[in-house]
Amino acid sequence: MSNFIVSARKYRPTRFDEVVGQQHVSQTLKNALQNAHLAHAFLFCGPRGVGKTTCARILAKVLNCQNPTDDFEPCGQCNSCVSFNSNASFNITELDAASNNSVEHIRALIEQVRFQPQQGQYKVFIIDEVHMLSQQAFNAFLKTLEEPPPYAIFILATTEKHKIIPTILSRCQIFDFRRIQVQDMVQHLQGICAEEGIEADPDALNIIGQKADGALRDALSIFDRITSFSGKRISYEDVIENLNVLDYDYYFQIGDAMMMEDRSAILMLFDEVLRKGFDPDIFINGLAEHLRNILVCKDPATLELLEVSGKLRERYQQQAQQMPTQLVLTALNIANECDLGYRLARNKRLHVEMALIKMTYINRAFQLSEGKAAAAIPEKKTADQSVNPPVPRPKEEMEPQPVSKAVPAEVPDTPTEEPDAAANEEQLAPPLPPEDEPVATPKPAPKTRHRFGKMDVNALMAEIKAEEEEVTTDTAEPLSLERVKAAWEAYIEQSDQESVNVIMKNSELELKEGEELSVTVTSNLAENTIRQEEPLMDFLRERLGAPRMLMSLHIDKSKAAEPPPKPKRLLSSKEKYLEMRETNPLLQEMQKRFDLRPDE
């Protein structure tokens, strides 16, 4: 077997400049070394595989380097650097707290702190996964961590900062490591491909960076796996096949089918995805991610949030120009709801198919809501349907007006052939009354209020006020407390809820100015009961003819009915005697004179 070394170890950075995506940590440590402002304890925290232990080793290497460079990088050639590279340095101690987490291990570490370094200036202790230490181990480590010798430096690394006790955090200089961006991973992988003589597609490396989820170590592990499969040529097809990733092309085809309202094409594409072995929830999440990328491409300011290669970026921009924003937002909402309800659905496939069908007809739904459905789907009209006959108004809405001369209209006989539009209008027109009868003219139709028209605000408010005044003048009888109480009693009689009826009967009514009905109740329960009685206000407004009537509830616990008095219990002979003695003090004197004792 060959001595193969994984890429995560072979290409592990040995200088601060080689650390990927953590420039803020590297530059801060370099400045601290340059200004001699180095802390005695550091805490490196962040996700897995982002370079915490690597930076700790580089810092320990620089501290004992005999010939550091001008920018405070290790030279890699002195005795200290050579011994560190071969894991033979006595000045650098690494401890895995995941397996050495007891008090005894920390005490052994403290004993090593007592001895000065044999070579170099500092003795560096690197404790990885420090959050795994027990509570007793943390307490034993506090004093040494707070006041170590001048030659001792502690570097702690952890992925779970919240598990470290505050007394440890307050004694360390904390550095937060960031998740590594996909573009930084792609550049690093391209450098490795150049070193190894491997030809890789940019889209393939981009997929590896996305699957790594911000961890460069995971990206290098995936890269080694793909290299073992593909050899010296890494293609996009090999990556999506090995990583079980659905091809972008499926989502672009579904996006085109959504705009064309091609339901059959979408369902067939979904069936093809299932036959390839992908779960429906993976598909719907991938579709949501695709819609999110299209939404990002809508605005040039958010285009940098798109983490794809150049070819895919152009394709996303092209589809983003064709797909309306309202379609993208609605489809994204449907995909989110489908993902939330996927676990509870019994028929998983049907659940996702229903979501896809909804996405297919989003444009049709918007057209119907905007009143454009007739233009989108024309309907055939017959000759009789082409004319809308006027609807006769009732006699109560007709106002008589005298007319001096009126000529009665001649109503033609029933035609044997189909009449045209003009004949229909003449036939459906109502006959004029005789000369001696008044002509009833209908009231003008109410003014229609345009929802989206360019109407003057003052004119609109004046129109609304005129309508409200018209409604007020139509009220036949003025509003009074007697009428309100009568309507209140009428609602109680027609209600079949006994608890509500009892509360309403015990309520006090008061009519205030501005058609405000004040209701006083005796408890919070009564207030909530009346407030939840939704049909009450509609009933009162209709019964009293007061559409602007309002109701306010008040609580007055003083008007609550007094509880019934508690029944008196029977008194014993002694209790009767004591009660009588309080009212008549001579009984006590008689008791003493005759030496009497009451019965128990």
The CATH architecture of the largest domain:
3-Layer(aba) Sandwich
* Biggest sheet descriptor: 5 strands, parallel
Say how many strands there are: 12
The best one-word shape is flat
Euclidean distance between termini CA atoms: 106 Å
The CATH topology of the largest domain is what?
Answer: Rossmann fold
Main sheet: which strands, in order across? 2-3-4-1-5
Kindly provide the radius of gyration, computed on alpha-carbon positions and rounded to a whole number of angstroms: 44 Å
Q: Strand percentage, roughly? A: 5-15%
Number of domains: 5
Task: Kindly report the name of the CATH homologous superfamily of the largest domain.
Answer: P-loop containing nucleotide triphosphate hydrolases
Helix content: 40-55%
* Text of the CATH class of the largest domain: Alpha Beta
**Structural category:** alpha/beta
**Total of helices:** 27
Overall average residue pLDDT: 79
Unreliable runs, pLDDT <50, ≥5 residues? 373-377, 379-430, 435-455, 471-475
Walkthrough of the structure:
The protein has 27 helices and twelve strands. Helix content is 49%, strand content 9%. Helix 6 links the parallel strand 3 and strand 4. With 600 residues, it is of the alpha/beta class. It has a five-stranded parallel β-sheet, with helices on one face. It has a three-stranded mixed β-sheet with strand order 10-11-12. Helix 16 packs antiparallel against helix 17 and helix 22 crosses helix 25.
